[in-house]
Amino acid sequence: MFDLSGKTALVTGGNGGIGLAMARGLARSGASVVLVGRDAAKSAAAVEALKAQGLKADAVEADVTDEGSVQRLIAQVLERHGALHILVNNAGTNIRKPPQDLSLEDWNTVLDTNLTSAFLCSRAAHAPMKAAGAGKVINIGSMMSIFGAPYAPAYGASKGGIVQFTRSLATAWAADNIQANAVLPGWIDTELTRKARDQVQGLNERVLARTPAGRWGVPPDLAGIAVFLASSASDFITGTAIPVDGGYSIA
Hints:
Blueprint: E1 8-12, H1 17-28, E2 32-37, H2 40-52, E3 57-61, H3 67-81, E4 86-89, H4 104-132, E5 135-140, H5 153-173, E6 178-185, H6 191-199, H7 203-210, H8 223-230, E7 241-244
Parallel strand pairs: 1-2, 1-4, 2-3, 4-5, 5-6, 6-7
Helix pairs in contact: 1-8, 3-4, 4-5
């Protein structure tokens, strides 16, 4: 049920953090994973680490905020692997400022990276997934898809948009046997959230106090949900937004 042998999975922002952990989980279940990022050296190192574990991995350098770059990306994946079955839209960034201090450039940077990239990659992936007879789109949201924060207006807007975009994909592409779901990571220990702990006083203590699991998450905590949503086990699940947060959102 969870076997992904013969499947090709594309993971944006896949060369580190949550993206790499999800890619590793997919690869361990048999998928051939393609890591996408702008840092070619970082992607190459991630691919070598996966291959050292006997996993099937590849990397493509691309700017997923650019329409032409995304089209070339999908063409390269199809040329190298022959098909595309799974898309994980994980590329993301944040600029932490209150709304009154956020520039239009800041806003556009975050929205383009977090939301527009998911649109461009999903749109480009539709035709090959339809041709394959099935597909899985996994969009990475956030706790900020649910909650507000004074220092994350653009990030919150982008991650709220991810949930609604996912629902649109789910309804539009159900007839093509393509399921689209969102994953909402809680507070996960990554490079991005380490910066948040430096910039937001008391964040670490508040997260620990509110999280029933009593700890920050780690990237491998996201591997299982990626495998589930990419596999035939979730064929009748679409349009959902699933928190993976140690209980933070219910506390």
